[in-house]
Structure of CADH8 protein:
Amino acid sequence: MPERLTEMLMDTWTPLIILWITVLPSIYMAPMNQSQVLPSGSSTGLKRLNEEQRVLHRSKRGWVWNQMFVLEEFSGPEPILVGRLHTDLDPGSSKIKYILSGDGAGTIFVINDKTGDIHAMKRLDREEKAEYTLTAQAVDRDTNQPLEPPSEFIIKVQDINDNAPEFVEGPYHATVPEMSVVGTFVTKVTATDADDPVYGNSAKLVYSILEGQPYFSIEPHTAIIKTALPNMDREAKEEYFVVIQAKDMGGHMGGLSGTTTVTITLSDVNDNPPKFAQSLYHFSVMEDVALGEPIGRVKANDLDIGENAKSSYDIIEGDGMDVFEITTDAQTQDGIIRVRKPLDFETKKSYTLKVEAANIHIDPRFLSGGPFKDTATVKIVVEDADEPPVFSSPTYLLEVHENAALNSVLGQVTAHDPDVSSSPIRFSIDRHTDLERQFNINAEDGKITLATPLDRETSTWHNITIVATETRNHSQVSRVPVAIKVLDVNDNAPEFASEHEAFLCENGKPGQVIQIVSAVDKDDPKNGHYFLYSLLPEMVNNPNFTIKKNEDNTLSILAKHSGFSRQKQEVYLLPIVISDSGSPPMSSTGTLTIRVCGCSSDGIVQSCNVEAYVLPIGLSMGALIAILACIILLLVIVVLFVTLRRHKNEPLIIKDDEDVRENIIRYDDEGGGEEDTEAFDIATLQNPDGINGFLPRKDIKPDLQFMPRQGLAPVPNGVDVDEFINVRLHEADNDPTAPPYDSIQIYGYEGKGSAAGSLSSLESSTSDSDQNFDYLSEWGPRFKRLGELYSVGESDKET
């Protein structure tokens, strides 16, 4: 500690001299001004002060003092004297008492109330508190009455170099591009010192590099770090660890220092070209590989990273530039070779390519270092594969007339095996595309023939699929679509577009157009339809009507005269012959119905029937039909009423010869036998009385006398016949005395001891084990085989 104090005193000898020169004269020889007075005994000063006081009317202040200073971090065996207060009112008789108040009064600073000496009782730290504001006052010791107004003064803590520089923001990280020139800015560091930057050199810092030379340098005063060596290569060393020191006292001996670290990383630039790992690559590929399928990868390594390491690949030479392509894998930066066109082992068995890899992003500063690209040779061998048959055309178009004869050849498809072995080909039709089996194909030569007649008007196009299969390997299959167009022939006669019915007015004029008719033809000639209209030969000189061909391929019907009458003839039938212009021409005859109608004066049809003449009262045919329908309905009602009355007069008891219960119905169905309990429920055939435990005999007259049934009540008119029959049926079913008696016999078994013997062969094995079946062979081949089976069964049983 004494050594430290000595060092501190040596470093601060100049401030101490200034302190004593400043503090002590301020205590004893303070200059005289309006706020201060001279020491006691200076009458001239007092007189001048009194004159000024009278003029200015200010109270007299007798303090002799100035600003005070105290050295920080000073510690010794005795409290340090900061300064002394004195007033000229003090005659030295010890009647004056000095009082101190304010920051730290009584704790940090203590005043001698007799002498006015102020001492610092504790060690002070300027960085904690730089100055203290205190108030001093002189009072009468006996009466404690203030002799002077209180005065305020400041005690400043004088700095010493007791704080080392600190890098608050450290440690630092910085980057600088590789291959940078000397003096390239890297980063700037900053240190702080808590000492007073105004007083002395305690806070004057100087920077230097402790570690990191000779790669980097630092400006001593600005702390700017720069590169010190040129062409630092990231690929050789990427990261540098630099130690920076900041020292106060201007870097002189005895100054305090602090350090920080700066991690400097060289960022990448594109200063390295791509390089293939090998100069020659070999790949093999099957000839049936799919288009776009990758067949191999090449790799050009680049020492750079990120964007600077990205390369693009291209095929620059070779005999397969149009067959293969190369693309770049964005993740791995590999060059992927893919098939661009189909391969054929039989045509070409190998390819040689020259591949180039070039950087995408090139730094022009390093172009002088050489081209940023590299090349390699790629050899690709095509291997043979068992390929499916190849058709001579990807699609086929056949044309056939709809009247083509059956089994006529429509066309031919051809295919071959592209392999060296050249397997034979068989052709077939995919019947899913020819469900009606209208076509056949020769399996050997691929000729397509007609199997069923065609009709263009039904279907103009037929699309089928031909399948070619190798005979040596049925898994090798090819398909080709075949479109068959059916050509038109003139096989349909024209006919009226619709059934026409013309109306002719009685007051019509000669030459008036009665009706315009048109024709249609299902055929489709190349030059369009052209129809010819004519009357039948026997109707050419028709006295009533004539025809006229129109330019739009229609026909107009004209009246030859006037004066048509419905009473004379109501309907006329006009046969018309329609012919087309095909080869050979087709024709048909259509009949036009022409009705004579009554019309108004302006030619509007009003009535086309004769009832207007037959019924002078004015009733129409519709009214007559309605009246007739009503009459028929009344007749039907009368007939039904008479029939019902007749049925009500008939007796309700059925005669014996008409009793339906005596009818016997025979069914030729064989039942399931005695074990068939699911065919029907026998309980339904029994008497319902059996449910209660009483089962009367149905084959004899019962002994029990039942109460006679009440007589039948008269049936009122309008009774429900169906309900009446159901009631009588229920009474008859539950009355055992009603004739005839039902007899039901139940047989639970076939019976035994029959003289005829059993017809079943189920028990023959137990009774006739030595039976001989040889006689069955005399009945024919079928029974001979049956006898052999039974004989074998007997021999097995004996064994």
